[in-house]
Amino acid sequence: MIELIVFDMAGTTVDEDNVVYKTVRQAINAAGYAFTQDQVQTAGAGKEKSQAIRDVLATDGNQHSADEVAAIFADFQQRLAQAYAVLHVRPQPGTTEVFVALRKRGIKVVLNTGYDRVTAKGLIDKIGWTIGADIDGLITASDVQNGRPAPDMIFQAMSATGVKDARAVVKVGDSEIDIEEGKNAKCGMTFGITTGAQTQTQLLNATPTAVINHLSELLPHVLG
Description:
This protein is of the alpha/beta class. Helix content is about 45%, strand content about 15%.
């Protein structure tokens, strides 16, 4: 029996017009590079954002210092704060309805993300979701020692909701690293969704339980 579903945020449950990865690219390329959006999302999707920057830079085959990564990350944070100040944020289609259906059946709903807590909390506040009323928890990259694909955030979500067995947990996300995170936590099921950073073909590379195109497609899998 499913007791907890851990959902990624941007691209999975939150529609923020891909502003995070667009901003990652802007900050990296402002430092003298010319990465494409596809390169940024392939290397960085789903990751804590300083790690995403590090991994994007590494794709050029050169050495990049910690100071360079830190400078780009600081620029990214400033750019993102400016973008979010005026950004219209909304749930991905059907998300709120899915949350209601799950919670009515006693299934806990937790959001997790490669964002830091301040950024993530700002997003859910803009949407109007309340922890305890609309969702059961929020776990961010800044709350744990190890980011994705390590299972730390899922384990913390389990601890926060009193779920003991990872086989009763489902992970849903729009990137391969989301699926890898779920598998590393030994979740009972993992789902990729095509509404965000990566395509069905990319998501299938991580061998999830299934790839869905809309969050409502999750319900038959988890409600029976």
